[in-house]
Amino acid sequence: MARVIHTGDTHLGYRQYHSPERRQDFLDAFEAVVEDAVAADVDAVVHAGDLYHDRRPGLRDILGTIDALRPLREADIPFLAIVGNHEGTRDAQWLDLFETLGLAERLDETGRRVGDTAFYGLDYVPESKRDALDYEFAEPDAEHTALVSHGLFTPFAHADWDLDEVLGEANVDFDAVLLGDNHAADTAQVGDTWVTYCGSTERASASERDPRGYNVVEFDGGDVAISRKAIDTREFVFVDVDLGPEDGTEYVRERLRERDLEDAVVVVTVEGDGETVTPADVERFGEEQGALLTRVNDRREVETDEEVEVSFADPDEAVRERVREMGLSEAGLDVDDTVRDLDVADSNVRERVKRRVEDALDEEPTDGDVGPEPDETAETDVDADAESEPDEQAQATTMEDFS
Known about the structure:
It is built from ten helices and 15 strands.
């Protein structure tokens, strides 16, 4: 028998909405998972990637991770993990550092036995590199087997990785596949294999409305049981406002007065008709009502009867000429084409750009790692309102600092 906590997408170091409190919230959520693991005396904690939000986390985030992992070591509970797309680099990984400190173990094709279950790891692999994978794993010496990986796999939403192909080509028959990358928790069965996403431990996007948590996976007597455990995270208050023809900012304020906003992240979504709503006024009012912070998303289309004149005959050609003058790389030109291609649906632009950048990072040499991944609107990534902070860059740390 083996009973493990399956977690992932902890995104430590993410200063969401430029808020230091939100940065601490992500660490608090990870610490809550560790506390539950020790209290429940599980056999292992399995992390399915994206431990960090940034490839170059700040020193305080690294030290916070070390402090968070120590209770597991003291309780003799192994922390088994793989590398996700947010934290991946070409050579040494932060996970390798924690392994040298005796705080973690990196899963790979050799397998790691816990009780009667062998756990294997498959790090995130860019789409352009997947055809070269052979899915060869060491023969298991355990009754059960589980694969831990990171990516958007079928049969789930936003998939670009064929799990049927992985399971068909693998030389090991897996009883379960424990996944990270999709921030929405979900479970399905592919043939005889149970497949599950644990979801993120904190809300990295305003689209993530469901409670956050992790999975408890139990392997016992030929069966696999997957259950869900919620964790107490920062409260998000979602206020959806459908404005009537004469409604405006004051109506939004009235809706906010109806809710308990104390210490919460408040996300206001405005739709319908009505007057212009000034986001700054609403955000200020939310904070006056006790909210940690307030963000406004006005989804109404702005319509005008006035004609708009352009100062040059062909704006597209003007943009193309300026891009040519910039001397962008092939990857940069591909990104530019994707962004301006009207045949690409808006909902697909960010995902396509993200994947192209990831492929470029693996294909082209560089002098150093890059920052956070491009943002997503779906639950597979982070909030589009977020931007990297100047103080984050000042604190950026490399693996060489610990050598």
